[in-house]
Amino acid sequence: MLNKLLKDYNIVLGSNSPRRKQYLTDLGFSFTVRASDIDESYPEELVREQITDYIAKAKADAIELQHDNEIIITSDTTVWNNHTSLGKPENRDEAYTMLKSLCGHEHEVISSVCLKSKDRVSVFHCITKVSFSDLSDEALYFYIDQYKPYDKAGAYGIQEWIGLVGIDRIDGSYTNIVGLPTKELVEELLKFIKK
């Protein structure tokens, strides 16, 4: 149904994330990829979804529209834990520190999505609560060494081994935790093209 509504638009995914590409493919979208490589720093006064909203829009701002009928989709995800935004770890020690801080606690995974066309921009976000098990150091290092989660916010991918053994409960969108809230994306795209 959505594909029929989008037939007059060229969808551009502003991301090289294999997970976001897969979700758009699974939704049946025809799209091209045109990612930007931006500095993902943000003003230090921003918190929670303000951070991801800011970065998702900055990613969209960095991509030029090449045709009048394009809709660019960009996204940013963070793990919000103990009043701190956990982005992508730079090394093994940082990945361990992030994962250890999540163990035995509940955190929030926040994804923001920016939709951009020639005449408007819309940003929305989705928040999912995740309860993490109290995993052993051995389990954490096994995951880090086997899966090398250096491209993932909070140093974990729920779709990987750690999600099978380390998640007690989620409250909200699963796809949001993976990096793209698909249900919300479809709803917002429908609103976006009808305005």
UniProtKB/TrEMBL annotation:
Superkingdom of the source species: Bacteria
Entry's family note: Belongs to the Maf family. YhdE subfamily.
Chief location category: cytoplasm
UniProt xrefs under InterPro entries: ITPase-like_fam, Maf-like
Active site, renumbered: 76
Stored CDD domains: Maf (cd00555)
Cofactor(s) recorded in Swiss-Prot or TrEMBL: a divalent metal cation
EC number: 3.6.1.9
GO cellular component, one term: cytoplasm
Sorted UniProt keywords: Cytoplasm, Hydrolase, Nucleotide metabolism
GO molecular function annotation: nucleoside triphosphate diphosphatase activity
Subcellular location(s) of the protein: Cytoplasm
Keyword check for Cytoplasm: yes
Official protein name in the record: dTTP/UTP pyrophosphatase
HAMAP family, sorted: Maf
